[in-house]
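wait is this the right file?? whatever heres the structure
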């Protein structure tokens, strides 16, 4: 089995090294194609106005000055020039759940693999207010990742579906099992714009995210992580909403 790995945190990200170790538990044939720099939040974007620079970091490890989507395209169409058997994207620094799904470069790496017709899985490691982004418990994803991926492959991934896996903010032995979940929803009022001043007194802005506690919906990815469970969410690439389509189609005749 040949596995192509990408990531959105960049070629030097600790989560990429974690995913390489997970993949090597499943096969000896692992190719890494990851962005040169942190691409978190770029979603499913591709580079159309800038050239892609490719750098061989070491044998079977490549960095691309581009997005995770660019990396998957470069991996499949240029570096391998063949379809791998599996694409793994991650392990992201931080959960990719609820509204994160459409912003996430990690999930987009798996989306691009799915568009190529290749089974694709996104993996993310949650951190919490006590662990924080620098104290993230990578050991959780590393301990459970290979078994979860194997089980998903045994079950099969249908065409046009990708699988979004999130590991809870827990030590490996404290994980409360696996939950198969739906995409949840946060309180969207929590995104804000913070104004600051540059060296010349001119304003610039940062998007900020306040994450106050709230009750996650039952059966959601958010709930699973809050309960210390590994969350597995199958996602469709087709975003069409059938009930609304039917209603509009009847109204527009
Ligand atoms: Mn990221």
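ok assuming it is, sequence goes like this
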């Amino acid at each position: 089995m040949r596995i192509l790995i990408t990531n959105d945190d960049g070629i030097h990200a600790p989560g990429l090294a974690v995913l390489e170790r997970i993949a090597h538990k499943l096969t000896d044939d692992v190719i890494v194609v990851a962005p040169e720099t942190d691409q978190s939040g770029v979603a499913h974007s591709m580079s159309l106005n800038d050239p892609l620079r490719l750098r061989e970091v070491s044998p079977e490890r490549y960095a691309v000055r581009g997005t995770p989507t660019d990396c998957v395209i470069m991996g499949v169409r240029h570096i391998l020039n063949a379809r791998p058997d599996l694409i793994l994207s991650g392990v992201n620094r931080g959960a990719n759940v609820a509204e994160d799904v459409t912003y996430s470069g990690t999930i987009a790496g798996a989306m691009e693999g799915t568009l190529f017709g290749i089974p694709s899985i996104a993996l993310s490691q949650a951190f919490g207010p006590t662990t924080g982004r620098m104290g993230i418990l990578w050991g959780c994803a590393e301990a459970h990742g290979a078994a979860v991926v194997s089980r998903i492959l045994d079950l099969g991934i249908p065409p046009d579906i990708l699988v979004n896996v999130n590991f809870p903010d827990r030590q490996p032995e404290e994980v409360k099992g696996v939950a198969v979940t739906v995409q949840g929803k946060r309180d969207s009022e929590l995104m804000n714009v913070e104004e600051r001043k540059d060296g010349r007194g001119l304003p610039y802005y940062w998007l900020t995210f306040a994450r106050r506690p709230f009750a996650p919906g039952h059966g959601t990815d958010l709930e699973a992580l809050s309960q210390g469970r590994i969350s597995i969410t199958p996602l469709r690439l087709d975003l069409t909403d059938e009930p609304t389509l039917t209603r509009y189609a009847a109204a527009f005749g």
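Helices lie at 14-24, 68-79, 100-103, 105-115, 138-155, 221-226, 242-252. so i think its the right one actually
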